Amino acid sequence: MKVKTGLGLDSHRFVEGESEQSFVLGGVVFDDAPALSGNSDADVILHALTDAISGVTGVTVIGATADTMCKAGITDSKAYLAVALESLGDWQLSHVSIALECLRPKIDPKVPVLRESIAGLLGVEVSDVCITATTGEKLNDVGRGLGIHATVIVTAVAE
């Protein structure tokens, strides 16, 4: 058996003032925080997850491919993740570890629904998705409540 790991990172600031966008995290819309700023839905978890899968496959999606999709009106980050998943070939995801840094919103109450959403998008068991969060002790902009940072590690196996 062969094993690979992929690492993905993403950060977005919260939108200041009024916005028609929703706050989307892990493919789920929440109403307890302002939208994140970006040319897509700015879902930091799915962007970092897509990059982590690119780390396994070597096929970059976040960047030129996602930008082209955005210009075509495809702004749902689940679509970018689907493109990355198509590149897995014989590789199967076996574990996903997600670490979030933010002051707001509170992540712990969201963990069960986030794990279910991500497991469903990836076709893995909920027990194979781990999510942790920290405020970062206000040492940087996300720790001071200006945005969210996501770090994702995926493990993939092939026979």
Q: What's the short story on this structure?
A:
With 159 residues, this protein is α+β, with helices and mostly antiparallel strands. It is built from four helices and six strands.
Which characteristics define this entry?
159 residues; 4-stranded mixed sheet; 60s Ribosomal Protein L30, Chain: A; 4 helices; two-stranded antiparallel ribbon; alpha+beta; 28% helix
Structure explained in plain terms:
By secondary structure, the protein is of the alpha+beta class. It has a single domain, classed as 60s Ribosomal Protein L30, Chain: A. Helix content is 28%, strand content 29%. Helix 1 runs parallel beside helix 3. The relative contact order is 0.26. The model has no long low-confidence stretch (mean pLDDT 95).
The fraction of residues assigned to DSSP E strands is 25-35%
CATH topological fold name? 60s Ribosomal Protein L30, Chain: A
How many DSSP helices?
Answer: 4
CATH architecture, please?
Answer: 2-Layer Sandwich
Instruction: Give the strand tally.
Output: 6
CATH C-level label: Alpha Beta
Percent in helix: 25-40%
Order of helices and strands: EEEHHHEHEE
Annotated CATH homologous superfamily: 2-C-methyl-D-erythritol 2,4-cyclodiphosphate synthase
Described by the principal axes of the CA atoms, the overall outline is globular
Structural class by helix and strand composition: alpha+beta
How many separate domains? 1
Strand order of the largest sheet: 1-6-4-5
The biggest beta sheet, please? 4 strands, mixed
Low-pLDDT ranges: none
Give the N-to-C terminal Cα separation: 5 Å
Q: Mean of the pLDDT scores?
A: 95
Radius of gyration: 15 Å
